[in-house]
Amino acid sequence: MNQQTKIALQQLARGFNDPQLDAQRVFRQLLQAMARPGQIVPIDRLPEAPEPLCGGAAALALTLFDLDTPIWLDEALCATASDYLAFHTGAPVTAEIGDAAFVLVADGRQLPDLGKVALGDAEYPERAATIIVQVEGLRIDAGHRLRGPGILGHVDITVDGLAPEFWSALQANRRRFPLGFDAMLVAGDMVLGLPRTVVVDKTEA
User: Fold this and answer.
1) Residues 59-73: pLDDT tens digits?
2) Which of 42, 85, 150, 185 is the residue whose CA sits 20 to 30 A from 192?
């Protein structure tokens, strides 16, 4: 099997086993992650997906994307996953990151300019983008301290495979509230929700 054929088969991966029920279950898990920032939530309905799109990020995409949600994909995902996402979700791909309702990044060490994503406006803050970033690992450990709604006191997390500028962007994002993007970090089958309400401080390892 040549590489071109292999990529074509990946792009036609079937996705969820039961699209409706699996998407409903993933949506409930996502709600838990966003309502409890700092809680690392397992996703237990993982679709088939073309590399480098991991199962957890694919599950979020198949749950959240639709015909009315323009998406921005980084270069790696444009090359391998755009047909897959178009087939399963119908979401249109946009070349302008500022026009996207969802931003999907394959490698957290290679982030786009998060200063250009949609932040909503005073009348429609819900029009802000949601950023989904794949990372190497998530664990409860000293690294960054999260505070804010949904967190009792604080929680310390460490994220492997994430560029430092993400945290600076998240801190700047919080200062724009109620405007600002929401973020989800995904490592394999685990997701960490970071809504625009979260406050981030650096901790000592």
Assistant:
1) 999 999 999 999 999
2) 85
